[in-house]
Amino acid sequence: MDLEVLIENVLNALAAGITIGCIYGLMCIGLGLIFGIMRIVNFAQGEFLMLGMFSSLYLVTGGGILAFLGPYIGPFVGALLAGPIVFAGGALVHKLLIARVSGLRTTGSLDEGHFGQLVVTLGISLILQNGGLILFGSTPQTVRTPLASSAIEVGPIYGDATVFLNKARLIACAIAIIVAVALYLLLEYTRMGKALRAAADNPTAATYMGIDTDKTYRFAFALGSGITAVAGGLMAVYLSFGPFVGLDYVIIMYSGVVLGGMGSILGAFWGGLTVGFVQQCSALVLPPQLQNAAIFVVFLMIVLLRPQGLFGRSAERA
Amino acid sequence: MRYGSAPRLKRDLTALAIVSAAYLGLSTLVSNSYYQLIMTLVPIWAMFGVSWNILSGYGGQLSFGHASFFGIGAYVVTLSLVYWHLSPWLGIPLGMVAAAAAAILIGLPTFRLKGHYFALSMLAYPLAILYFLQYLGFQEMSLPMHRDNPIEFFQFTNPHTYTFVAVAFLIAGIFVCMLVENSRFGLALLAIRQNELAAEAAGINARLWKMRALVVSGMIAAAAGGFYACVLLVVTPDSVFGMLVSAQAVVVTLFGGVASIWGPVIGAAILVPLAESLNAELGNILPGIQGVVYGVAIIGIMLASPDGLFWTIRDRFFTPKAPAPLPASLAANAPAMRPSAAGTPLLKVEGISRSFGGLRAVSGVSFEVNAGEILGIIGPNGAGKTTLFNLLNGVLASDAGKATLADETMTGKKVHNVCRMGVGRTFQVVRSFPRLPLLDNVIVGAYGAGFADAEAIASAARALERVGLADKAGVAAGQLTNKQLRLMELARALAGSPRLLLLDETLAGLGRDECDDVLDVLVRLRSEGMTVVIIEHTMHAMMRIADRFVVLDHGRVLASGLPRQVVEDRAVIEAYLGKKWAAKQDA
Amino acid sequence: MLEVTNLSVSYGGLRALTDVTLSVKEGQFVTVVGPNGAGKSTLFKTISGIVPAASGEITFMGQNLFGLPPARRAHLGIAHVPEGRQVFKTLTVRENLEMGAYPKAGQDAWHHTLDRIHTLFPILAERALQLAGTLSGGEQQMVAIGRGLACAPRLLMLDEPSMGLAPAVADTIFERVSQIHKEDGVTILLVEQRVAEALELSDHGYVLETGRMVLDGPYETLLRDDRVRKSYLGLS
Description:
heterotrimer; A: mainly alpha; two-stranded antiparallel sheet; B: alpha/beta; six-stranded mixed beta sheet; 25 helices
């Protein structure tokens, strides 16, 4: 009897780990784009996640534009549309603020402009978190869908052990994978994607080729924000969130990106997947509050032991 | 004490006394209890900012997680009061000790990281502690009332008393900061912030100083946190370990002015009342207004004046007086130089090699340098000259071979230890502390060599004399010319009383006359018994002063010997001008 | 085609170029030689717009380049093959070349230029899908030159193509560059440390020393002039 329960718990944790892991993977790709292409440590990435969640919420509920789509399709379309909304916001943030403390302007300065970037994005994070509190209030919200409370039953597999695949999470996971693949195709095969990778690899040489690195970076920043926002919109379907939810996830995102290896966008996905997996599996043994603490410990171990991650190109350590 | 500290200290202390008296006087006029609380909080947050400043302002190690120490201080005081009835008189020092221990535990692994990895990792610690505390069930803890014993338990009936005590704490914190700033501690931190590699090459053990800074910083932060708990009488994990707490230290100091005593004070004095009043007035409609204010402040200051208000104001309105020249007697007490017997080999390099991936950057390089001679290392671009220096100096580890200085092994030692052996090094890119006087820029080299304060000042003064910059000792480095900056680098290396100088492209970018001036200094140094190895491209200069050449090409020694011979050497001509030219010469 | 007049540049706080004048006519092969630290790379960086000029003028095809952002210059037809190759290490050889063809002129002529590049450097066709960072120095140089050609340039600027290469490999590179000049009629501005090879191929040479033009003239004149050797070996 106990063995069956154990197996059921383990299998469900594995299933949850993979589905949630894929969504985390998408979230990390967004950060990976920014961190990997522009070497910018964007403190506010968690807030872009949060904005994605709230954008989807307002699109879908109440008098939102997508309310007509109903609770089965609406939340997912909302998640996807959150992307372009935050994309635009990200482009604006980059143009007005980030570009002034990064890029070609600061290469060659003492610390390559890291100080300025870190601090400015910290400021943006504070404004978005607290601004979010003002605009959205502190009541926890969710984008409600009946799919979140229904599941596909797989099994029984071993005795009575059944795996329950939550429908909402399953669909979110599928969408996350599709978006990730689409992004991969964009980066690998389109002119814009290649220009992005070139600008990341060697901005000076890219300029010699005629690539406008400023505009390219802006695109990368906006794209990274938008992708993380889509992940947020997807998470909004099964999580309850408030304006400060970003904080919980910023370390998870960085863990995933660093684990996957800075500079590797694909790596960021795998890193995120791994981190999500570890988190869900840790739920088997750890109480909820400690799960995030466990991720922090994992993060610290990664940066100390293997800072180039699994797929990374260079070690940026002391 | 640093040279010139006395007048600066006097000025700062006087200002501190005046400002504190004025502030305390103002606080007695305030009767509204909420504003009274704000007046108490300002010095507390300023003190927290001061603590952050030591590590991140002076030391340049940006930390986004100072709430760890603040929170530790708060919780130690609270828990010890609740469970052991321990008075904060003991609780606060206990918290400081706990913070020091935490600093060491945190610093040991985390200082292996730099830049953004360091900042991010520091962020993780307070959040991890926060989650842990929430797990343990510490949601909200109240400090038990002990109104009967106000002094013993820091619970005063008169709110003004809190302000007085807060200011006293702040003054103590500023005091420590002043001590740091005006001692070699401060200069070492500034050097590390400016260019950690150059600091190491000047003999500074960066890891050790960063750790010291973290411990001092943590202890001050814990004291602030401990008193904060006494003031608010309620602690929650989020209110002392939360993101906003860490951010407050950063914002207040960056806004007010990093690496200055007054920065955190100015920042706290402006931002805390602003944020708190807005919170009080508008907190109902705009619940997050505090955070927004801090966010806007910090973005504004980074875009407008990244060093903070204090420096912008000081640069704009206070023109520094013409600096007084150093008294000539200062150099008299310099520690004796240690020239080696001329003509004997001082530096022996044997078969040094280093590859990067498949590329052999330096391959089997061997040569000797005799005491009192100037050896020129030349060779086409990419020949491995700077890599060779990096190998000698300890910046890079060699794959094979070794180097000895007077028969003592150099290779395998850490950078600052190589410096202590008596090796001075300059770098291609000169980095100075633009706001500090020339003497301070130079004295770092003397600290690195382990001299005591008075000796260090004397040694730096003598070094300046030797390069001919003694009259500029008080000038801010930001106002020096290129040539003077190069000489400054040289002086910094000399201040450590080295036996061997490794100079990397000291003449780069200098015009003909400036070149000659620097060359004169080098010739003079040689006549005093100094041994110099110099990498240079300016050939006519090298011809003038080098006793011998070693020519590197593709990482190997191509030729070595007297300059006249080497430049006529066919292999050398080939390396520089190409095979066909050399062939044409033969024809 | 390219006129540089009285150019003075400060770079990294140092005076890198003082009062430099040179001119490249259409169809010419011009070389700038000079010892290390003479300012040759700075000259190219200024023409490409990465480094601003303190004073003086640069005109290309009659257009004053002052104020034109660096990324726009490639679109005018100026191709810069940088010092140290600077290939995109994490992109494949083919993708590197595609990046070279980023400007419109490059895109229009893409198929034709790709053929030409493969003819000149067959190994690039062989290794089309290999990551450029894994190639040898000589191969990377070919990628860099191919990249420069891919934008169907009017002016091809090469910054020390032989640096760090074994002499035999460098010779091959020079041969190809000469071919590009003769067969495709591309105007070439070459900067080199290896004097003889460089000057031999060119119509006109300039000698740069500590930021100043000290000598210029046609190949034969320079080759006979002992001042060149002296300048390199510090005997002047």
